[in-house]
Write a structure and sequence with these properties.
Layout lengths: L1 H22 L4 H18 L5 H34 L2 H12 L3 H19 L4 H12 L4 H11 L7 H11 L6 H18 L2 H14 L4 H29 L5 H18 L21 H23 L1 H9 L2 E3 L9 E3 L5 H15 L4 H34 L2 H8 L5 H19 L2 H19 L3 H14 L5 H11 L5 H27 L1
Antiparallel strand pairs: 1-2
Helix pairs in contact: 1-2, 1-17, 1-22, 2-16, 3-6, 3-15, 3-16, 3-21, 4-13, 5-6, 5-7, 5-8, 5-10, 5-11, 5-12, 6-7, 6-21, 7-10, 7-21, 7-22, 8-19, 9-11, 9-20, 9-22, 10-11, 11-12, 13-14, 13-15, 16-21, 18-19, 18-20, 18-22, 19-20, 20-22
């Protein structure tokens, strides 16, 4: 009875979030502070966690939320400047030149372009770029966020140059050869399961824009969706197998973006009937204008790539830090890398835009004001979301939940493993943090049940990527880039089903690999 009550109390924050956001449809602005306060009270009075330790964890959560909001602020500022100088319209023309079909646009921008950005930067950056691009093509803000979140799954396990595996699992003390074996299994599971991603993106677009002939429109896009998937997963898997976990999302994203983009323009595997999301009339623009409109994005990709791939430069950029060690005297620290964070590169590109597009003082002032208006709503919710994450990390919540699952069967646990990873990402909005939170538990449970450590950790990593679709702080960040407010419940209700299906496919593949 005591164990049951302890498990229930550990689940309270997640049950409360589920009720408030999904069922009662409260915005995160209200549901996150309430959930944090309730969890805080349980920690103080039931688990007797030190108030100083809780305060230190809140400060770290606050600092991390500011770091994330800097990324979002400069991403939104970057997009707002482009809008101010009518470059979004020119970019729209350029992207429409590739294809005017909304299904193809969703696959190319959300899945392939998003994969490239995820591989380079991670940490919510793909949605910060992909969602506004989709909006510029005429997609609704809500639809754009849903598409960007669903697509930001397969590349996440190797996001930010392999951080979830190299730092997430590497932080648990695993040897490099074990990490490489896990990486190959992760790539294999994702490569098979990810076929549902381009298909799902196309189906969502069809359901949004078509009132009839939905089945026909789905069959029409099947060849292109499967072609896009194959062009992505082949270099994705081969890169992991022969190079390592640092570059698969970058290489696969880059190659597939070029090959699929050219194929789409020449209607290779493309449907004859077009579904258009455009709300405004477009005109042809010159190559020079198209290049100028694309240049800010190319600069971001180029600079991020240099900072992640060139090891001496990466080491130098990460050597410049702002540290807050032993917060309030506790074993909690925070480190900020001002020249390595994606926000620095968004700022750099924004400054480039100011000069190349000749932004005047009034336009700059208007852009800054518009940016502040867009991000002020999610900031408070994000602060409490990250404070909750840090509280969970210092508490026994993950261990309590883990212990309650230790008596289940091997087969059921294998199916459950990706959902544990997804659960961690739902909490933290990070595949890396999910691996750090639940990696040790997955290892110990695998040993206790006599299951392959490599397979279980592979499912953990895959699940951590899947969980990005429903992670609250990722939803908040994506909303901020397109100016949405209070739609978290609606967005998660649209993404949770595909995350469940993806997780089940991954678990089934895990069962097959163990036989």
């Amino acid at each position: 009875m005591v164990e049951l009550l302890t498990t229930f109390l550990a689940l309270v924050p997640f049950i409360l979030l589920l009720i408030l956001i999904i069922f009662l449809r409260w915005p995160a602005l209200y549901s996150m502070p309430i959930t944090y306060i309730v969890t805080l009270l349980i920690g103080l009075f039931i688990w007797k966690i030190s108030p100083i330790l809780i305060s230190a964890s809140f400060i770290k959560g606050f600092l991390i939320s500011i770091e994330i909001m800097l990324i979002i602020f400069f991403a939104v500022f970057f997009i707002t400047i482009l809008k101010e100088k009518h470059q979004i319209r020119k970019l729209q023309e350029t992207l429409s030149f590739i294809s005017e079909d909304a299904r193809i646009q969703a696959i190319i921008i959300a899945f392939l372009f998003g994969a490239l950005i995820e591989g380079i930067a991670g940490f919510g950056t793909p949605a910060a770029l992909a969602a506004p691009l989709l909006v510029s093509l005429g997609f609704s803000p809500l639809l754009s966020v849903v598409l960007a979140l669903i697509a930001n799954s397969t590349p996440v396990s190797f996001g930010a140059a392999g951080t979830p595996i190299l730092l997430g699992l590497g932080g648990l003390g695993l040897e490099r050869n074990i990490l490489e074996e896990i990486s190959i299994n992760v790539a294999l599971i994702h490569s098979i399961a990810s076929i549902i991603i381009p298909l799902t993106l196309a189906i969502i677009v069809i359901n949004h824009y078509e009132k009839s002939n939905k089945l026909k429109r789905t069959f029409e896009i099947l060849p292109f969706a499967i072609f896009s998937w194959l062009i992505f997963i082949i270099p994705y898997y081969l890169t992991v197998k022969y190079i390592g976990p640092e570059l698969p999302s970058i290489i696969a994203g880059f190659l597939s973006l070029i090959i699929v983009g050219i194929s789409a323009h020449y209607r290779f595997f493309g449907p004859k009937y077009k579904i258009s999301a455009k709300k405004i009339k477009t005109e042809k623009i010159s190559f020079k204008e198209a290049s100028k409109a694309l240049s800010p994005y190319l600069i971001i990709i180029f600079l991020l790539s240099l900072s992640r791939i060139i090891i001496p430069l990466k080491d130098f950029l990460k050597s410049i830090t702002l540290n807050y060690q032993s917060i309030l005297g506790q074993e909690i620290s925070y480190t900020f890398f001002p020249l390595f964070t994606p926000s620095f590169y968004f700022l750099t590109s924004a400054i480039f835009c100011i000069f190349i597009f000749k932004i005047n003082k009034n336009e700059l002032s208007h852009s800054l004001k518009d940016t502040f208006n867009k991000i002020k709503y999610p900031t408070l919710a994000l602060i409490f979301a990250l404070a909750l994450v840090q509280f969970i990390i210092i508490s026994d919540i993950p261990l309590i939940i883990a212990q309650s699952l230790s008596s289940i069967s091997k087969e059921f646990y294998i199916l459950l493993s990706p959902f544990i990873g997804a659960f961690g990402a739902f909490i933290a909005g990070s595949n890396t943090v999910s691996n750090l939170l639940f990696g040790s538990f997955q290892i110990e449970t695998a040993k206790a049940l006599g299951i392959s450590l490599v397979i279980i950790l592979s499912l953990q990593v895959v699940g951590g990527a899947i969980g990005n679709m429903i992670a609250i702080h990722n939803v908040l960040a994506a909303e901020a880039t397109v100016g949405l407010k209070g739609q978290e419940g609606k967005i998660i209700r649209k993404t949770i089903w595909i995350s469940i299906i993806y997780g089940l496919i991954a678990g089934i593949i895990g069962l097959i690999l163990l036989r």
